[in-house]
Amino acid sequence: MTLLKYSFSLTPPAPPPAPAKHTYAYSEFTLELAHLWRLMPTAEEKTLNFVSDADGAAIIVSVDFYDIPAEKAQATAEFAVERRLDAVRQLAEGPVTVLHRAIAPHSSGGGLEMSLAVEPEGGHLHLFLGYVTARKVLNFTMICPP
Description:
Layout: E1 21-26, E2 29-34, E3 38-40, E4 47-52, E5 57-65, H1 73-91, E6 96-105, E7 112-120, E8 125-132, E9 136-144
Antiparallel strand pairs: 1-2, 3-4, 4-5, 5-9, 6-7, 7-8, 8-9
């Protein structure tokens, strides 16, 4: 007869260490990015530019402060989304496919959330997320390979 001896630990293994991140705190938001993203200087006020050479991608965060009456929030959001789309169309060398476009109330009830995803033919994907509140328009754009 063969006797088998078996044991196991009831203590789960320690989780692997979290990858190091850069944290960018701004009065309107906090952004955490992996170390492969680097902050690029810009002459534009109220704008942050990040680049990841490893991903071939860029992130642009900007904010514009306005007094936006509730009755003009929808028109402001539509204008912002249309301008983003126009900018991509002007830079594209061919047709631009709109993959997603939406404006909806933000889940907090504090404004509107805008989103847009477009892909120029043969170009990089442009992902846009923005917010319209009573006092600002906040924009997050990512440009990345398809």
